[in-house]
C-alpha cells in the first residue's frame, strides 16, 4: 500500500544513453512533482504537473521530458545522459487546494551516469 | 543543542536531550512551511507543518516555531531518540505558486 512509488530504485548507465524513471501515486492527488537531490543533499524542484498539465518547469534542460499519462503517474525520461545528471531523483504528489499543501515523496531513484 | 541549516551542518546530541534545528527561509511571501525528515536511502518524510498565520504548532515530541519578522523557522524535538537520526529539511511554499523550496538541511546525529 505504498503511497508514492518509483522504479527503478537504482539506475546505472553510460553517458549518452536514454533512460526513464517511473512514478505512481495511489493517494488520489491531482499534482505530481519531480525533484533532483545532488551529492550535497540539496533538493530542487524540476517539474510539476496538475491533472496531467505542466505547471512548473524550472529551467531544466530539454533533455529531460516528463510525461503524465494520467494524474496518478508522472514519468521522467532523460535523453543523452551526462555525468552531471548523476543524482537521486524524487517523485512527490500533493492535493492542491485541499487545505494542506503537503507533498508526499517517493523513495527516490539513484541515477549514476558513468 | 542548536544548529543553523546552511551547509548541511551536523548537530550531535545525546539520547534524551532536546534538539533544536534552525532554518532561515528566503521568501517573505511564503505562507506555508513544512519540516521533512530524510533517513539514509529514503525519501523526505513529512514531520510537521505550520501556516504563516501561526507562530507555533505542536505535534508528538516535535514543535515548530515560526518568526516571520526575521524569516526564521525552528524545529524542536523533545527527548531525542536514536531513531531521530536523519537529515532534516525545512521547506517553504507560496501556496499560490505550489513551488516548494527546500533549505539546505541539517544532519542530526543522536548517540545512545
Keywords, please?
heterodimer, A: 114 residues, mainly beta, seven-stranded mixed β-sheet, four-stranded antiparallel β-sheet, 11 strands, 0% helix, globular, B: 112 residues, six-stranded mixed β-sheet, five-stranded mixed β-sheet, disordered N terminus
Summed up:
Chain A has 114 residues and is mostly beta strands. Chain A is built from no helices and eleven strands. Chain A has strands spanning 4-7, 10-13, 19-25, 31-37, 43-50, 53-57, 64-70, 73-78, 87-94, 104-105, 109-113.
What structural class do helix, strand and pairing data of chain B support?
A: mainly beta
The most extensive contact between chains is:
A-B, 26 and 24 residues
Q: Can you tell me the residue ranges of chain A where pLDDT is under 50 for at least 5 consecutive residues?
A: none
Number of strands of chain A: 11
Q: How many strand elements of chain B?
A: 11
Order of helices and strands of chain B: EEEEEEEEEEE
**Mean of the pLDDT scores of chain A?**
91
Please report the number of helical segments of chain B. 0
Distance between the termini of chain B: 15 Å
Main beta sheet of chain B: 6 strands, mixed
- Gyration radius of chain A (Cα, Å) is 13 Å
Task: Spell out the helices and strands of chain A N to C.
Answer: EEEEEEEEEEE
The class by helix and strand makeup of chain A works out as mainly beta
- Which outline of chain A best applies? globular
Distance separating the two termini of chain A = 34 Å
Instruction: Report the β-strand fraction of chain B as a percent range.
Output: over 45%
Please bin the fraction of helical residues of chain A.
under 10%
Amino acid at each position: 500500500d505504498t503511497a508514492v512509488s518509483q522504479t527503478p530504485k537504482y539506475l546505472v548507465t553510460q553517458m549518452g544513453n536514454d533512460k526513464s524513471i517511473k512514478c505512481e501515486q495511489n493517494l488520489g492527488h491531482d499534482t505530481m512533482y519531480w525533484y533532483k537531490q545532488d551529492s550535497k543533499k540539496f533538493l530542487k524542484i524540476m517539474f510539476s504537473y496538475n491533472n496531467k498539465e505542466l505547471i512548473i518547469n524550472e529551467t531544466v534542460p530539454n533533455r529531460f521530458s516528463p510525461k503524465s499519462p494520467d494524474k496518478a503517474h508522472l514519468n521522467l525520461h532523460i535523453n543523452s545522459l551526462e555525468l552531471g545528471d548523476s543524482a537521486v531523483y524524487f517523485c512527490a504528489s500533493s492535493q492542491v487546494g485541499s487545505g494542506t499543501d503537503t507533498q508526499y515523496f517517493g523513495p527516490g531513484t539513484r541515477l549514476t551516469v558513468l | 543543542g542548536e544548529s543553523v541549516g546552511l551547509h548541511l551542518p551536523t548537530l550531535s546530541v545525546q539520547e534524551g536531550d532536546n534538539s533544536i534545528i534552525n532554518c532561515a527561509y528566503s521568501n517573505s511571501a511564503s505562507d506555508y512551511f513544512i519540516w521533512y525528515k530524510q533517513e539514509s536511502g529514503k525519501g523526505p518524510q513529512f514531520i510537521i507543518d505550520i501556516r504563516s498565520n501561526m507562530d507555533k504548532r505542536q505535534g508528538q515530541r516535535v514543535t515548530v516555531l515560526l518568526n516571520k519578522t526575521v524569516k526564521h523557522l525552528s524545529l524542536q524535538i523533545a527527548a531525542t531518540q536514536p531513531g531521530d537520526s536523519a537529515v532534516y529539511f525545512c521547506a517553504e511554499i507560496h501556496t499560490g505558486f505550489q513551488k516548494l523550496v527546500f533549505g539546505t538541511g541539517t544532519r542530526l546525529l543522536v548517540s545512545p
